[in-house]
Design brief:
single chain; 276 residues; alpha+beta; 60s Ribosomal Protein L30, Chain: A; Alpha-D-Glucose-1,6-Bisphosphate, Chain A, domain 4; six-stranded mixed sheet; 6 helices
């Protein structure tokens, strides 16, 4: 599954470089949330009112991961003043209590002046996860070479039909265009050299790119095939807003792209074997 990140627009997220939530499969991990109204930047006066507002933000965040307050399995509550614990706990009981989540409440100072409560939750979404599609190919080239190709933003412009003809924009950012409708698309590539994995973060705003596609080069055991061969896979998840027609096109596109990836990697490999 591809890990996704959400933002509420809080200035603290930009300052400290974190996400409002991380969505990983059925799990949704929501950062500590205070009762700020992000449309005004103001905090209500009372601790109970701040708890209500914080839970409103948490509920909206969970919805982005297709979860609800009923899916919460863990709650951590931070309250600076012990005298506010009872009022905050009553809000927690009423709003989150039906989930019967594990709960820890701590009296501790908070980083934001005027904040009287901060709430952090973990949810496990019920139901099936969003469908995903994986396209794979046996590539007659070393896995390290395949990984380097997958991590190359300019090479991506030769096989990604939705982000074709990439140009380097600096700071690890590449700009391509869709062969389907001509729309521009930005991509930033995150790499994991130890696992030979890459994640393509896509979008139109360089500050709000979303991880949508993952790819991996996996060495094969010598007993399975040529010791210089590897398996390359590419996985995409179907997002909640994706229509059936769009999803079918994405699957067909990935099956085509994996063949382009295979051909171009093998062409770069020393003494590459002919395609089969």
């Amino acid at each position: 599954m591809i890990r996704r990140f959400t933002s509420s627009g809080s200035p603290w997220e930009a300052l400290a470089g974190y996400s409002r939530a991380v969505i990983d499969g059925r799990w949704v991990f929501v950062s500590g949330t205070i009762g700020t109204d992000f449309s005004t930047g103001l905090l209500p006066d009372g601790a109970a009112e701040q708890a209500e507002r914080a839970i409103d933000t948490i509920a909206a965040t969970l919805a982005e991961g297709q979860a609800t307050l009923a899916d919460i399995v863990r709650v951590r509550v931070f309250v600076p003043e012990p005298a506010d614990v009872a009022a905050v706990s009553e809000v927690i009981r009423r709003r989150i209590g039906p989930s019967r989540a594990a709960n820890t409440t701590i009296c501790s100072p908070l980083a934001v002046p005027g904040a009287r409560v901060e709430i952090e939750v973990t949810a496990h979404r019920s139901g099936e996860t969003q469908p995903a599609h994986t396209a794979t190919a046996l590539v007659r080239a070393p896995a390290a070479l395949a990984f380097a190709f997958l991590a190359d933003g300019l090479a991506l412009g030769n096989w990604a039909l939705g982000c074709f003809g990439t140009a380097d924009q600096g700071d690890g950012l590449f700009l391509g265009h869709s062969l389907f409708d001509g729309r521009p698309l930005l991509v930033r590539i995150a790499v994991d050299p130890e696992r030979l994995e890459v994640t393509y973060r896509l979008g139109s705003d360089p500050d709000r790119l979303v991880p949508r596609i993952g790819a991996r080069a996996e060495p094969l055991r010598a007993s399975e095939a040529d010791p210089q061969a590897c398996q390359v896979s590419m996985t995409a998840e179907r997002t909640p807003d994706m229509t059936a027609e769009h999803w079918r096109r994405l699957i067909t596109t990935h099956e085509t792209e994996i063949l382009l990836i295979k051909a171009q990697i093998e062409r770069r490999a020393p003494q590459a074997s002919p395609h089969r």
